[in-house]
Structures are given as structure tokens and as C-alpha cells.
């Protein structure tokens, strides 16, 4: 039986003025809407107690399992308002499927796709006023004004016990946060530090699951990169430190002189991004051959230096597509092309944004209308 997410309205939601003040410049992940979706799973009864409730803190026993053993997973997707006022999600079925894969890996219960989608639909309906106006205008001006409602579904071990075993009680929740344009001052290529000291994940580990520990283990590498003056870290494989994997929160692509759009193959250690998958499909529309294979770090850096690799970019829900202007390992800097945003990178980015904001046709049926 599917779950119902009935609304228990917030007794004191923010006023229209308070909300408007936040939506002027929402930033990313700092403001939250008035409600959240919740459901609880127990090993005896399965999923129950689903509802949309006032946004607010959880009360957690100090022995709550997630605080000790990190049994938790999450997702990230956005709701986009189109020019006619309607509200849409981009491939939310893919997030539901990934959440199920993550759940299996982390010994958490799966939430059916229809329940995952129902929780999001109900939350957006309750907090529709928090979905910012999408984009206005065209071209670069519209890109820098693009806003959305970021959705963060997550699930954690909420049984109070000390002992290493799967939790018999699990809490599901989805919160929503209005998000401003990721690149408020326009799209600028980022500088990447390649870490061969720290790994994000290893064979048989949890790299393909969206679980907090992967991100916790990336923080020190990210801090070291920032200290050296870089924006983000690129991780290599844990066995040979030889193969390109991904950034801390984005997948990676490169464009070659023979018109291939190449991304590291899914090896079980990389997160399967929804944006990554969408770009594989879009490649042919741009006259490029999509290729998933192993890419060695030396191949990448030598290709950049020779000009054979003409563009490198990162991709993910938050920033869509981020051009990479420079990569550095301990041995030197490697500037990609002229160091600015490449043609393919710009065109793919524009295509994805146009689709998401309803400015382009949706031949793949990727958009799902909520309101
Ligand atoms: C480690 C990692 N890789 C890749 C991605 C990109 O995934 P998506 O395109 O589904 O946002 C994300 C973001 O969710 C991520 O956290």
C-alpha cells in the first residue's frame, strides 16, 4: 500500500514578507521552507506515520544509531518554476532509483518510487510559495538569475542502541531549501587539485552510494586543496592512484579533439550522477560520441597539455555543469585550452538549463510536472 503524506499545517509559517525577503537572495542550503515530509520504518511494521509536518528539529537520544555508525543516505534534486508558473522536477525517478540502490548498500529499507515521489509532491504543494520564480530573460542574464527549490530527501538509522548491526528503526525525511543561482556572478572555470593522497572510496566500499561518510572522508582533502588555492578536489582510484574518478560532489567529463565526450566508467566507486547520465544521452545531439571508460590521470594531463583534450567539466544537480580551467597535481599545473569556458561545455550547460526551465522541448520525457 502506498504512503499518504497528508498536511499537518505549520501553526506559525513565515509571513509573505519574511519569505519574500529570503527569496531575494536565498543562497544555497541556508534557508528552509515551512514544512518537511516524514515517515518512519520499523522492522516489524515497515513504513508508517507518513505526513507533511511543520519544519523543525528532531529530538535524538544520544544512543541514536546514526550518530555512532553513520547508517544514513540522502538525495538531492531541484524543483524548477517555468515561465507559466508551473513547477517541475528533472528525472526524479532517477533519484528514487539511486536512493533505493544506496539503501540496499547501507542496509537501510527501500522507499518505493511512488512513495518517494509522493513525499516530494506533497511537500512542494504545501510550500509552493517557496518555489522561486525561475529564470527571466535569455542567455547569460537568465543563467545568472536562475533559482530553484532544492529538495533533500534523506533517511537515517533512528533506533537507540549501541552495537554494529542494521537499525530496526529508520526515519525518512525530505526538506526543501530555496536556492539562488549557483554562479551568482556568471559561470567561471574552476581550479582543481588532484588528490593522490586521500581517496573518496575503494573497491567494495560505499562510493556508489550517496551516504554521508563518503562526504566526511572528502573534507580533509577539500580543505587541503582550498589551502593551496584550489576550488575543488578530483579523486583518483584507491588501488593504483592512477584512474580518474570524480570530484567530491560532481562527476567529470572531458571533450577530445576526435569529438568524443568521455567520462570515467562506473566502477562501483563512483556516484552515478543523474546529470552524468543525461549528458551521455545528450552527447549525440551535439555531434559527440559518448564514451564511458577508464581514464588514467596521465592520459588526462598529457591530453590537456597537447591540446587533444580540449575541454574538461564537472557536472551535478547543484551547479549543472562547471567548466574546469586548470588541474594540478603535485608536479605542476595543466591549463585546459585557454583556461576559459569551452564551446561544448557552454552548449551542454545551456541545453540542460533550457530543458529544466521549460525553455526547450523535452524529447526524452525527463521533466515531471508537480504543480
Ligand atoms: C559524489 C557525487 N558525484 C556526483 C554527483 C552528481 O550527481 P547528480 O548529477 O545526480 O547531482 C553528486 C551529487 O549528487 C555527488 O555527490
Provide a short characterization of the protein structure:
With 371 residues, this protein is of the alpha+beta class. It has helices spanning 16-24, 65-69, 92-105, 113-126, 139-143, 212-216, 219-227, 274-282, 297-306, 343-356, and strands at 35-42, 46-54, 72-74, 77-81, 87-90, 148-157, 169-179, 190-195, 232-236, 244-247, 251-256, 260-264, 289-293, 309-316, 320-329, 332-335, 367-369. Helix content is 25%, strand content 29%.
Structure notes:
It contains ten helices and 17 strands. By secondary structure, it is of the alpha+beta class. Strands 8, 9, 10, 11, 12, 13, 14, 15 and 16 form a nine-stranded mixed sheet that branches. The radius of gyration is 21 Å and the shape is globular. Residues 76, 246, 249-251, 271, 273-276, 316-317 line the site of pyridoxal-5'-phosphate.
